[in-house]
Design goal:
9 strands; 24% helix; alpha+beta; 4 helices; 211 residues
């Protein structure tokens, strides 16, 4: 073997040994563990107080007519939800406009139904000829005691009856008539014949015992 060939041979051998001595590189892997996407939080709609529903409906009523005055506000039952502590899943309010000679009933629902959308629903206009002794408009400034306060006051007043008749949910109706100087809540458990009812001032939040 010539000197030149021997030199090339050793160079080649050195390259082969160097290549063999290097450990094969492990395939690159992503060591970052993929985080599972957070599950969306499911919020169950909750019944709301009378004032919460009232002011939402009032905004729609005011957009209809700038001189609207409230006539009534009432809680309603809804299948699948329980009214508790003066809160309800469904509320209705009637507003009147003297300039238009009309009244409208608005409904506030915490969920959509087959006949209602979620939020405020506006009924068609009906003729309104003005206040009567039984149904009189009231000022929103006199409506300071929420349905929850009315419920608490009425429940305390009727504690003895409620202890004998547990598990009943009341209906709450707000309105004004000639018997009272300011709007009142009418809170009733059961019915007029065999239930319990109380009048609660919507201004003071105290039970009223009319003569």
């Amino acid at each position: 073997m010539t000197k030149f060939c021997r030199k090339n041979f050793w160079v080649f051998a050195a390259l082969v040994l160097t290549a063999c001595s290097q450990a094969p590189k492990a395939p690159t892997t992503n060591t970052t563990t993929a985080q599972a996407a957070p599950k969306p939080t499911v919020t169950v709609p909750q019944p709301v107080s009378g004032q919460t529903a009232f002011w939402e409906m009032y905004k729609s009523a005011y957009a209809w007519s700038k001189d609207v005055q409230p006539l009534t506000l009432a809680s309603k039952e809804m299948q699948g939800f329980k009214s508790e502590g003066g809160n309800s899943p469904l509320w209705t309010a009637t507003f009147a406009s003297a300039s238009q000679g009309q009244a409208r009933t608005f409904t506030y629902s915490i969920v959509p139904t087959s006949v209602l959308s979620k939020g405020v629903n506006i009924g068609g206009p009906i003729r309104w000829s003005g206040p009567t002794r039984e149904v009189m408009p009231f000022q929103t400034s006199d409506f300071t005691a929420d349905s929850t306060a009315a419920f608490a006051a009425a429940a305390a007043d009727g504690q003895a009856w409620l202890e004998k008749n547990p598990g009943k949910s009341p209906t709450l109706t707000l309105g004004s008539n000639a018997r009272f100087v300011s709007p009142v809540w009418y809170v009733m458990w059961g019915n007029k014949k065999s239930g319990y009812a109380a009048f609660v001032s919507a201004t003071s939040g105290k039970v009223i015992h009319p003569n």
